[in-house]
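Take a look at the protein record below and flag anything odd:
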Amino acid sequence: MNHNKTADKLIRDSIPHFSLHIAFAFILYLSVRLIALLPAVVMSRIIDVYIPDQNVKAILLSIILFVVLPVINAGISAFQQHRIAVSGRKLGQVLFIKCFEKIVYQPLRFFDTNNSGELATYCRSEAMEYVLLWIMDLPQMLSNFAVSAVVFVMLIRVHPLLAVMQLLYIPILILPSKWFGKMTERFAEQMMQYRGKSGQIVSDTFRGIRTVKSLLLEKRQITKLETINKNTVDIWSKSTALENIHGVWINVLVDSLFIGVTFGLGAYFVIRGSVTVGGLILFLNYMPQFFSIVKDLSHMNFNFHKQLGQYKKLFEILSMEDERDIPCENLPFSCNRGIEAKNITFAYDETRGNVLDNFSVNVKSGEWLAVTGPSGIGKSTLLQLMIGNYPIENGEILFDGTPAAKISRKEIRENIAYVAQEPYLFPGTLRENLELALPNGSTARFLSAMEDVGLGKFVSELADGLDTEIGENGVQLSGGQKQRIAIAQGILRGSPVMLLDEITSNLDTETEEEICNMIQKLRREKKLTLISVTHRPMILQYADRNIELG
């Protein structure tokens, strides 16, 4: 699949009146190029006509043109450059946001097989340079074709043989550039892979800093990062050397060869009388412009391959289907009668075998079901399947008899609150974390939820109350407090079903009992349906029913 076509379509769709945008840019670039041709024409006329005729007035007017034309060109160029820079940045951000959007809507299976740090690196690639290929290089290329035709006609008028000889410049310059471009694409792809690995090491180190320090892993992580960075620098050195060789080839060797040969032949033709001195000056002035056009085309090809390698993973991500693309009848969610798991067989991958094998269970509305069993038997997997984090290969889950496959994942997750063994709290304040469940909720509503989960007194004793900073992943809170806040989020969402995944496994007995009493009270008051996975016997005393897997 040609993944960059998806990015191309996205760019076209993101620019209002795309064709007009390209046409306007083409006119501006064409104007700049054509105006740049005029001084050479005036210079040739001064040498061949005005000087022999001693026409001082015409020479003075020509001097005024030499001043005015660059000013006009500078104004047009400055306007276009500003316009391109702003548009490029905006569209680069569009691709960045679209990439982030594609990733967050991927099913959990995607995150099971991709490192978060590498995904973050690919996601942060704004692809502005690739955007510029469309909004700058494409209209510039079109204007270059038009101007090159004008320049070539002017060169033919000076001397046909010299003009035709300049055409050899094109294959001599462009053919090697194709090889340079392919090599650069490979190097750019490798550098992006190493950048992803580097980002993963940094991310893992900071997130697991307590483990890093307790196991004295600082030096190990630094060494790993140094190795990756060394490999990155090695690839970068090769890429830079290739770019430098390419630059020397197109800017020094080939140019010097053609200018030297052309000047020598031109001088010969002046002596023979077939070319005027002014004509030779015109020719020598137009040669660099003709060369510049060909270089722009070569450079565009070179950059295109470089950016294909650099943004290959980004384009793959933009081309992926996500959870929103899964066909669904969008039936409403209800759990007035209960939940049924029916003949479910599930495996994370073929090599690990089935985690659940023809499993069935019924949970009545308002019931508290406890699920027990040894580690790895599929208890937590059952909860993940209920909230649609993984597709079910065989069997089905039904809510009031409606298959989950016919209800959107958004609808299911709005009505089922999931509380993990180690809840993740975002950096910020208590209020900001509660607002994730109830955007724009009132202070009174948040305080009521905190009271429901037994944290009312705790919040009242904080100097900043709900506006207290809790640190990264709630580092300033205890395990029990984090569990209670996660449950409070479920309450604020008004979810009639709550899934509790080993929520007391890391708590002391006293805190565990407090949380169990709190959950029991909430269940009765809010008529919740609860399914809890546990290894701990205390929850079994509160649950209405217990099933053991395995």
Q: What stands out?
A: The beta strands are 338-346, 356-364, 368-372, 394-399, 402-403, 416-419, 497-501, 529-533, 545-548. The first helix runs from residue 4 to 14. The mean pLDDT is 84. The CA atoms of residues 91 and 102 lie 16 Å apart.
